[in-house]
Amino acid sequence: VWIFGYGSLVWRPGFEFTSRKVGFIRGYSRRFWQGDTFHRGSEKMPGRVVTLLEDCGACTWGVAYEVRGEQVAASLEYLNMREAVLGGYDTKLVKFHPQEKDSEEPILALVYIATPQNPSYLGPASEEDIAAQIIVSSGCAGHNIEYLLRLADFMRYFCPQAEDKHLFSIEEALISILPCLYLTEESLEET
Predict the structure, then answer these.
(1) N or C terminus of the chain with fewer C-beta within 10 Å?
(2) Contact indicator for 68, 131 with CB cutoff of 8 Å
(3) pLDDT digits (tens, 9 = 90+) for 38-79
(4) Global pTM?
(5) Chain-centre distance of CA 188, in angstroms?
């Protein structure tokens, strides 16, 4: 079984796997439209994590993990809790295209997608509003800022040829807001 990750799974799968490949799926755009009240946020301050939006002209880059034998049941049980029960995601089969040039045919992979029907779905917002929500959100897996920055770093280092305007616009908005949060009374008096 192959499992495609496009959010925190790209740097922290949390399950054993046999191999991994960087690549993409077609027909979807990555969006920070899913709320998270456990891993990267709380009930009072939900974090923002990614889901996929059907978009016929787009592709989303990430990592596909191959799980075999005993790894299959253990990984699916773990991911069901992490993504479906705690996250509100549904599963779907997609065609994964490995980045390697000498690759064979696309690989069928399982992917977790949060739909507008789940209670944690937040939907669209401006990049600035999403960045502001990410800045103030933290959950049991860490701060929401870490989630955004690790995902942006993954894209820069492993998929430098790929574009993800939504992701990088939110990162840019976050970076422009951060210095404003660290103004001290002394620096305010100087201005």
Answers:
(1) C
(2) no
(3) 999 999 999 999 999 999 999 999 999 999 999 999 999 999
(4) 0.90
(5) 36
Rg (CA), the chain: 17
Residue in the block written with tokens 């993504």: 83
- DSSP type of residue 6: S
Q: What class, spelled out in words, does domain 2-186 have in CATH?
A: alpha beta
Token pair listed for 174: 């976050």
d(CA 189, CA 7): 41
Amino acid at 145: I
Catalytic residue among 66, 70, 77, 83: 83
Percent of the chain with pLDDT over 70: 93
CA 161 to chain centre: 18
Separation of alpha carbons 176 and 160, rounded Å: 23
Tell me, yes or no, if 70 is annotated catalytic.
no
- Contact by Cβ (8 Å): 64, 4: yes
Residues 90/115, Cβ–Cβ less than 8 Å: yes
